[in-house]
Amino acid sequence: MSLLVVGSVAFDSVETPFGMASDVLGGSAVYFSYAASFFAPVRLVGVVGQDFPAQHIEQLQAHGIDTSGLVTRPGATFRWKGRYQGAMDSAETLAVELNVFGEFEPDIPERFRATPYVFLANGSPRLQRHVLGQMHQPKVSFCDTMNLWIATERDELVRLLSEVDGLVINEGEAVQLTGCTNLVAAGKQIARLGPSIVVVKKGSHGALLFADGTCCPLPAFPTDEVTDPTGAGDSFAGGMMGYLAEVDDVSLASIKRALVYGTVMASFNIEDFSLRRFERLERADIDHRAQQLLELTRF
Amino acid sequence: MSLLVVGSVAFDSVETPFGMASDVLGGSAVYFSYAASFFAPVRLVGVVGQDFPAQHIEQLQAHGIDTSGLVTRPGATFRWKGRYQGAMDSAETLAVELNVFGEFEPDIPERFRATPYVFLANGSPRLQRHVLGQMHQPKVSFCDTMNLWIATERDELVRLLSEVDGLVINEGEAVQLTGCTNLVAAGKQIARLGPSIVVVKKGSHGALLFADGTCCPLPAFPTDEVTDPTGAGDSFAGGMMGYLAEVDDVSLASIKRALVYGTVMASFNIEDFSLRRFERLERADIDHRAQQLLELTRF
Question: Which member of B185, B293, B299 has the closest CB to residue A224?
Answer without folding.
Answer: B185
